[in-house]
């Protein structure tokens, strides 16, 4: 691999990463091949081996790219959240906006969720993805912490994993069963646990909505 030491080289390298990320989203890991990535990026086939040590290296960068895209959407949503005391249902709906998407799930949103869980399970067989996933998870924890803080909720770091696991389990089940309402099961399960894993702070000067 040669490093992308010039602006042109960096642009080409980034184009390859984004092309691989798009293919990963559309067709899963099997869709990411040297030729398909180069074709999508409109670059010579040799560029994939010039800028990346291996196909696994390119895939790891694509996984991180898609993860960062998801996180950017979540951060934008949290930036719009006002700081006020939220009740159980309002808090759950906010968390679902972040972890699932809008109430009316589009096909693109469904595909992103499928890709997310393909990414998770791939880490079990692809050691090179584990550090990427750990970095993404740390950023997700920060986003969820901020959302809960703005909802006047006690943020318990040790409980964030439990909260996300509840949503992950519900979504994997719903996706596997082709459930058209991906949020419904996750919402029902979160309503059962949110006051335990992220209890409301005792601040009587705030109005609960």
TrEMBL record:
Official protein name in the record: HTH tetR-type domain-containing protein
Top-rank taxon, per record: Bacteria
A GO MF label: DNA-binding transcription factor activity
Cited SUPFAM superfamilies: Homeodomain-like (SSF46689)
Keywords: DNA-binding
Gene3D superfamilies: Tetracycline Repressor, domain 2
Annotated ranges, domain HTH tetR-type: 10-70
Binding region for DNA: 33-52
InterPro entries reported in the protein's UniProt record: Homeodomain-like_sf, HTH-type_TetR-like_transc_reg, HTH_TetR, TetR_C_31
Matches recorded under Pfam families: TetR_C_31
């Amino acid at each position: 691999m040669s490093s992308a030491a010039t602006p042109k080289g960096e642009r080409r390298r980034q184009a390859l990463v984004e092309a691989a990320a798009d293919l990963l989203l559309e067709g899963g890991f099997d869709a990411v091949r040297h030729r398909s990535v180069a074709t999508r990026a409109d670059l010579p086939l040799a560029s994939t081996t010039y800028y990346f040590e291996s196909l696994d290296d390119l895939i790891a960068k694509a996984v991180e790219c898609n993860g960062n895209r998801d996180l950017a959407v979540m951060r934008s949503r949290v930036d719009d959240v006002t700081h006020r005391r939220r009740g159980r249902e309002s808090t759950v709906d906010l968390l679902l906006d972040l972890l699932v998407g809008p109430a009316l799930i589009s096909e693109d949103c469904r595909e992103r969720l499928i890709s997310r869980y393909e990414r998770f399970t791939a880490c079990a067989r692809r050691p090179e993805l584990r550090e990427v996933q750990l970095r993404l998870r740390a950023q997700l924890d920060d986003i969820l912490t901020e959302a809960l803080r703005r909802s006047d909720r006690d943020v318990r770091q040790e409980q964030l994993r439990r909260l996300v696991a509840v949503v992950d389990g519900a979504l994997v089940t719903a996706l596997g069963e082709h459930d058209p309402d991906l949020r419904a099961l996750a919402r029902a399960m979160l309503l059962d646990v949110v006051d335990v894993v992220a209890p409301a702070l005792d601040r009587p000067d705030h109005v609960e909505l």
